[in-house]
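Hey, quick one: can you model this chain's 3D structure?
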Amino acid sequence: MPILRRLVHWWRFRAHSAELEEELAFHRDALERDLIAGGTSPEEARVAARRAMGNETLMREASRAVWLWPWLEGLLQDARTTIRGLRRTPAFSAGVMLTFALGLGANAAMFSFLDRQMFRPPALLRDPSSVNRVYLYRVRDGVESEGSGRYARHADLVRWTSSFSDIAAFATDEMAVGVGQDARVRRVGVVSASFFTFFDAPPAAGRYFTAAEDAAPIGAPVAVLSYATWQTQYGGRPEAIGSMLQIGAVVYTIIGVTPREFVGLWPLQPPAAFVPIASYAASEGPSDWPTTYGWAFGMETMVRRRPGVSEAAASADLTRALERSFRAEGTFRDDTRTVDQRIADLRPRGLAGPILLERGPERSSVAKVATWLGGVTLIVLLIACANIASLLLARGLARRREIALRIALGVSRLRLISQLVTESLLLAVSGGLVGLIVARWLSTLLSASFLPGTERAAVTDPRTLAFIAAVTVAVGVGTSLFPVLQTRRLTLTEDLASGGRSATARRSRTRAALLVLQGALSLVLLVGAGLFVSSLRHLRAVRLGYDADSVLIVGLAMRDVRIDSAHTVALRHRLLDAARTLPGVDHASLEFSEPFHGMTSWPVYVEGIDSTQKLGIFELNGVSPDYFATMGTRLLRGRGIETTDVAGAPRVMVVGAAMAAVLWPGRDPLGQCVRMWIDRAHCTYVVGVAEDIHSQSLGPETRDFYYYLSAEQLRPEEGGLFVRARGDARQLVEPLRRRLQAEMPGSSYVTVTRLAANIEDVMRPWVMGATVFTAFGFLALVLAAIGLYSAIAYQVAQRLPELAVRMALGAAVRDVVRLVAGQGIRLALYGVAAGGAVALLLGRWVAPLLFKQSPYDPVVFGAVIGVLLLVALVASAIPALRGARVHPIALLRGDAS
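Sure thing. Here's the predicted structure for all 897 residues.
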C-alpha cells in the first residue's frame, strides 16, 4: 500500500538518504574516471562531471518526493527554520508565547467551568437528547412560581402521563453518614429505583436496589455507595458489600457501588451514597407520606420521552396530568371556591425542560454571571490575539528585506506563506501547552472561590483538550494572517535596495487598528470590573440587622434517638448552658429558624386587616432572652424576650420595624394584639420593635417581614442555637462542636456552621463578577500597555534618523517626546471612544446583574478612562524619552544602535 510504503521510507529515511548519496557519488566518480581516461585533467574532469550530472539538489528532492509526502517534508523544514529563528529572538518568542498562554489558559479554565455547569450532559446518561427534567409551575398571588417536590404529585404524573418510557424521582439531602467520631455530614442521593435505568452505568460491585425495595410505605433499608466513598472509607474492598452503614436515622445494608464516572445529576457535588425514596421518607416524613400533598422534601422528576414525542407534546401531557393532580388534591385551607375556580386561578403548567438546572427556565444568578464571564475570557483572548498580531506584524515589517531576498532567490509565495503560518502555529501551540498550566491554576481558583466544596474541573478531559486545540489552531492561523497579507505588498526592487527601511518607516494602519481594538476591549473589561466592584461594595455595606461574621449556628440531629418533648427541651437548655461556658463564647440563644436557610413563615391576623398575606410574607423565629445580644440586632422600642416569657405567661412578640409600619401605620405597635395561625383564639402582644433584618434577599424590594416569639411559648422542643464568638468565629467551630457533642445522647450529633456562610452563598455572583472582571481587566490593561509600548518603541526605532534631524535642527527633547507620545495618546483616545460606546450599549444587559449600581455610572467610566489614558501616556513616553536621548550627531554618523 502506498501509505505503508511511505511510512516505511519515513522510518528508514536516514538509511535511504545515505544510499542516495552513495549512488550520486558513484555516478559522479564514474564520469570523472571516463573524462580522465580521455585525457582531461582531474580538475577539469571534476567540474565537467558535476556539470554533466545536473542539479543534484533537484534529484534529491525528486527522490524524497517518492519516499515521503513533499508537503510534510516542507512543513518540517519550515518548523526547523522557524525554531532556529525564534531561538535568535528569545525575548520576542517568550513574550508571544506568554501572551498566548494567558489568553488560551483563561479560556480553557472558563470553558471547563462552564462546560460542567451548562453544556455537558451528566456523565453516563443514556441518550441525553431524549431526557428531560420536569418543571412544575403554579400561580400564587398573581405570580407564577415553581412548586416544591411532593411524592404524591410525582405519583400522579406517573399515573396520568403517557408520553414517557421512563420516569424517576430524585432528591438530595445533607445527612450524617457513619456513627460516633467517624460520622460526617455528607450529601446523600434520595432516588427511586428507576433512577439508575437512565444511565449506562452497571454497578462496579454488587447491584442497585429494585422497585420492590423502593415500594411504599416503608421500603427496604438498602444503600448504594459512590465509587469515591467505597475507595476512601472501605479501601475498595469487596467485603464492603453486605456491611451495615448508618445514614441519618436508618441503618442501611450496602448492596452495591456505582462506577467510577457515575455522578448522577450532580457533577459538581456527587452524593456519597444513594438510598431509596421509600426508606428515606419512612424515616424522615409523616406516616402518610405516599399520599399526602402536604409534605415536600425537594424531590424532582426526570423523564425519558418515547420515540417521536416532542418536548412540546411532553409538556402538554405534563400540564394535563398536573391539572388532574390538583383536582385530586382536594380543598385548600380557608378556600370556599369550587375546584374549577381554584384550578383556573392556579393555572398549573408542566414543562419538559433541560436536564441541567443551569440551562433550565430559571437560571441561577451564578449561571448568569458565569455566562458573562465566559464572554470576558473571549475578550481577553481577542486582546491577546490583537497584541500578538501587532508583534508579528512588526516582526514582519522588520524582515521585509529578508522576505524580498527569498522571493528573489526563487522561493514561492505559497511556501513563504506556509512558513509564516507555521511560525504562528508553533508559537500558539507552545503558548497553548503553557496555557494548560495556567488553566489548571485558574480552574482551581474558580472552583475554590465560587463553588466551594465542589470538585475542581479537570482541564485535561477530552472536551476541554479538544476546545483548547481548536482555539489554538484558530488563533494561530488567525494571527498569521497579518504578516501573510504583508507579503502581498512587497516591492522587490525597493525593499532590496533600501533594506526594508522605506517600507518599515511607513505607518501601519493595521497596527493602529489593532491597538485601538485592544484599548476599546480593555475599557469594556475595566468598566465591567468597576461596576461589579462598586456593586460588591454596596452589597457589603448593607446592614443585615445582625452580625453574621461573629455568629455560629448549632444544628441538632437526633437520628434514631427517641425522646419526648420534655427531654428534648432539657437537652436544648443543657446545650445552651454548655455553649455559654465555653471560652471564646460571648452569648448564646435558642433559635427556631435561621436567615437565608430554613426560614419559617406563618400568617398572622390583625384586627382591621382582611388578609395580611396580601401584604407580604411574615417570617418568625422562636428565641430565648439572650437572642438580641447574640445576634447584634438592635431593639428600637420596648423590650426583647425576657426570662419571664415562659409557657403559661401572656404571649409576647417582638416585631420588625417594617412589619410594625405595614400593620399599624401611624399607630403605636406596642401592646397591639396579633393572633397567630397556631392559635387564633388568643392574643400575642407586641412588646418591642427591632430593626429589620434580611432573611431571604439582600435587596430593598423584599416583602418579607420578621417577628420574634419566645422559644418557650412557641415550640420549645424544636430548633438549634445561635452562638456569638468573641474573636474569629472560624476558630470556634470545632471546639464548640466537640463540647456540645459530649452532651448528645446515643448516635445523635450536632453540626456547627457559620452564619456568614449563608450570606456568602447569596453574595457569590457579585464576588465572582468583581473578582474575575477585575483580574481579567487588569490582564487586559497590561496586554494593551505592552502592545502600545512595543508599537511606539518600534516606531521610534524606525524614525530615529528623522528624530535626529529634528533635534539637529533645534527641536527640544520635550517636543520630540510630545510628537511621539502624542501618537500613542491619540490611539488610546480612539480606543476609549470605541470602548465607551460598546460599554454603553451593553449596559442594559448587564444592569440586572448589578446591585444598587447604575451601568452608566459616570464615576466608574471617568476613573477607567483616566487609568487607561495614564497607562497609555506612560507606555508611550518611555520609548519616546529613550529615542529623544540619542545624540543626533552620533546617530547621523551611523554610530547609534
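One thing worth noting: Residues 563 and 813 are 90 Å apart (CA to CA).
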